[in-house]
Amino acid sequence: MTMQPSRDIARLIEIMAALRDPNGGCPWDLEQDFSTIKNYTIEEAYEVADAIERGDFADLREELGDLLLQPVYHAQMASEHGLFDLGDVVFSITEKLIRRHPHVFGEEAARSAGGAKAKWDEVKADERARKAEVKGLAAPSILDDVPHALPALMRAEKLTRRAAKVGFDWAHWHDTLGKVEEELGEVRGAVEAGQPTGRVTEEIGDLLFAAVNLARQLGVDPEAALRDANAKFTRRFHYVEQRAREESIPIETAGLERLDGYWNEIRARDKSGSV
């Protein structure tokens, strides 16, 4: 089969259908299903985010293409089972955007970005109510549509943000900081008391959740903050490895005192702004 690249998304749909064609398609693609492809979908979203953070727009163009393939892939598999096709997906999102923006596409007018956000939240609340009704639930929860597949820090932030909308929130960040300190004390107490691993795990989870809530109150994205901390740790540890090589000391036998000394060197340089 001869196929040429195109700017038309219809060509991408054709290519995906050909890859999944039992008669002459790609053996690997034919073996895939929703469960095996979902991890690629998540991975591609992270690669888009990475390209944005690096400011690499040539890479971003390519990564967006990889991400665009994912809904086309899922829609092709759904079409094979008679569930829906990409046209249904496009209709669904266009209908949702129009419905959630009556201040743009309807007669209602929002006088500010805040008004638009309030209208968005109102429409989403109505959507949750309809979904609960379809499922036979007595009443929807404001937490219902916070995806379980989100990274844990991101989901914790969204859960606390939703709860705060109905007043379930500390009045001031000082109170939340006190909760973080309280949870840290409970971790210490569980460890010192020799509690089972499961109990310690629970207490550490509570500590992390409280820290995420504090970050939200202070206007800090906890996922981004931890990502930055990971990058800083990586850069500093690379320095530690470099110093060990410079002194011809195998890092495995250098010992904590020496390694910590190297670490303090790079910390001091960071604080002085010389790195």
**Between the first and last Cα atoms, what is the distance in angstroms?**
55 Å
**CATH homolog superfamily of the largest domain:** MazG-like
Q: What's the gyration radius in Å?
A: 25 Å
**Largest β-sheet summary:** none
What would the average pLDDT be, to the nearest integer? 90
User: Low-confidence runs (pLDDT<50, min 5 residues)?
Assistant: none
The CATH topology of the largest domain turns out to be Helix Hairpins
> How many strands appear in the DSSP assignment?
0
Describe the structure.
The model has no long low-confidence stretch (mean pLDDT 90). The protein is an all-alpha fold and 275 residues long. The protein folds into 4 domains: 9-99, Helix Hairpins, CATH 1.10.287.1080; 108-134; 152-220, Helix Hairpins (Orthogonal Bundle), CATH 1.10.287.1080; 224-272. The longest helix is centred in the last third of the chain and has 25 residues, at 222-246. The chain has helices spanning 9-19, 27-31, 34-54, 57-80, 86-100, 102-105, 113-134, 152-164, 173-192, 197-217, 222-246, 256-272. Helices cover 72% and strands 0% of the residues. It contains 12 helices and no strands.
